[in-house]
Description:
Layout: H1 2-44, H2 53-66, E1 87-91, E2 95-96, E3 103-104, E4 108-113, E5 131-136, E6 154-155, E7 161-168, H3 196-204, E8 208-218, E9 221-222, E10 236-239, H4 240-245, E11 251-257, E12 260-263, E13 267-269, E14 275-276, E15 291-301, E16 307-318, E17 323-327, E18 330-331, E19 336-337, H5 352-359, E20 366-373
Parallel strand pairs: 10-15, 18-20
Antiparallel strand pairs: 1-4, 2-3, 5-6, 5-7, 7-8, 8-20, 9-14, 9-19, 10-13, 11-12, 11-17, 12-13, 15-16, 16-17
Helix pairs in contact: 1-2
Amino acid sequence: MPWFAVLLFAIIPLMSLIVHTGLVILTRRQMQTVVNSAAVEGLRYRDDTTKTEMEKREQVSKLAAAVFDDDLNASSGQGNFNLGIGPNVTFEDGIALEGTNFKASRRIASAQPYSEYDLEQNLANRIHGDMVSGGYDTADSDHIEESDYARTDFDLSSEDAFLVRLRRSGETFDSGVGSAGPTVPYLFGRGPFGNANYMNRIERGTIVRATAIAHERIARTVGVHSGTLQYGVAPFWIELTSWNSLTTGTEVNFSVVSGVMSGGVVGRAVSPRVVSVGDTLPIETTLDVAIGQRYVPVFAVLPSGDRVVIGFGIADIDTSGGMLTRIPSRIADQNASTKWSSDLSSIRSGDLSSFLDAVGTQSERLLAPALVRTVR
């Protein structure tokens, strides 16, 4: 019993550290889940001219709120689980210790999941806001966000990336720019001992922040146009040299005989299917009817003679009228991904160098958002 009493002085502080560390890790992971999805969503709408900037950022806020919504129905509330970004603990008033912010003899009044994670739109696009449109420096080696939210890998000089933050730091920001919830409180070790700085830190709790950056990347897989999807793969593939020779915004005419495209473009008719960079051209003899904007697979003829997809573009097409207009490079807001649906093992070893060279020569490439950075 004496030994047990002595060991309690070591066990209880260790337990407090374990419990608090667990709460911090849980909060950090939940917050990161939100910002990862929100960053990709923010960049996805960059080139959508049908929405205002406010509407685009409202969509990001809605997605962030939906991450912890049980039934994904905002009008029905949180649901049974009441998930959120870590616990929210409130204390009863205690005895204020002179010279510090610490209050002794406090008791937990309530504890529940913290679910106030609405993102501010930051329409002024200030660098420390919840949502920030800017440029990402892929060559930067640090990828660290300072305490004042300055970063060496992200600035406001361009719009090829989108950053989203969540904070439980207790900070106050200008209305509409940024938000911050309460810190993660210490549940143990709250006795009135130590110097003033130590007690102030105990009262403050642990600051938790989560940041994610999405960056534009080359689209590597596209899906089929169907249902409510506005965009999908075209029913033909175009040869790389022919695609690069097109004038963006200028309509060209083509004809198809036995699946072979000629005239203003050179290519092949292909039945619509999920297409990924590295896929080999199949042989089709008929051209499906398609009208409107479609993702166009672009293929290169490699030294072995294989015709392999090296990327995608986007064009306004009317196959029934034999019309095609190349559209400027843009970020696909649906039905496209930066991930391969298959690997490149099917490309012959002698073709690999030519394949990689061809990937870099395509003009007006279809892009897609990709999560590139999730750091403190």
